[in-house]
Amino acid sequence: MPSTRFVKTITRLPTGLRTKHTAILGAATLEFGLYYGQTVKWVLENATGWVVGVVAKVMKEPEVDSFIGANKKLLQRYALTFPLVKGEVEYKLASLKSAQDVEETGDVGLTLVRFGEFRALRW
Fold first, then answer.
1. Is 59 within the bounds of a domain?
2. How confident is the model at residue 2 (pLDDT cuts 50, 70, 90)?
3. Residue 99 belongs to a domain
4. What is the domain count for the chain?
5. Within a domain: residue 89?
6. Which backbone phi and psi does 26 adopt, to 5 degrees?
7. What is the mean pLDDT of residues 20-44?
8. pLDDT in tens, 65-114
9. pLDDT of the residue at 51
10. Secondary structure of the chain: what % helix, strand, coil (to 5)?
11. Alpha-carbon distance 27 to 55, whole Å?
12. Structural domain harbouring 62
């Protein structure tokens, strides 16, 4: 029998997210990092920037076969179901790649624009 806390979490999700898979992912508890013990849904709602950073880092890391690695992948799966978060993660990865290109080549023209309608384009 699911706990009352779990049931309340599922019923508070927007209608479009009430699929079993997404609800279960959102109700899972983080087992690592700054927000250890919080639900994935809570962390995404209250620390979106942190989630974007963690998801970008997890996407760059090789697959890790451990409990914490699985927990990070769970956070990634849940966070990427939201288009705005997915866009921010893609931008974060692009800006990290751009910074690496600038460092390797010395060409500052490879730096991404970080504001306005041309955000994510190179100079």
1. yes
2. very low
3. no
4. 1
5. no
6. -65, -30
7. 83
8. 888 888 888 889 889 988 888 988 998 898 888 888 888 888 887 777 77
9. 92
10. 65, 5, 35
11. 18
12. 4-82
> What is the DSSP secondary structure assignment for residue 29, as one 8-state letter?
B
Residue 62 confidence (pLDDT): 82
Q: Report how far residue 110's alpha carbon sits from residue 91's, in angstroms, rounded to the nearest whole number.
A: 14
Pairwise CA distance, residues 104 & 84, whole Å: 30
Strand partners for 112: 122
- Tokens 């479009």 belong to residue: 16
Residue type, 78: Y
Q: Tokens at residue 72, please? A: 């990070």
> Taking CA 97 as the corner, what is the angle to CA 73 and CA 67, rounded to the nearest 5 degrees?
15
Query: In this structure, are residues 25 and 61 in contact, taking their beta carbons and an 8 Å threshold?
Result: no
Domain contains 121: no
Question: Are 28 and 74 spatial neighbours (Cβ–Cβ below 8 Å)?
Answer: yes
> Residue 22 in contact with residue 13, Cβ under 8 Å?
yes
CA-derived radius of gyration, the chain: 17
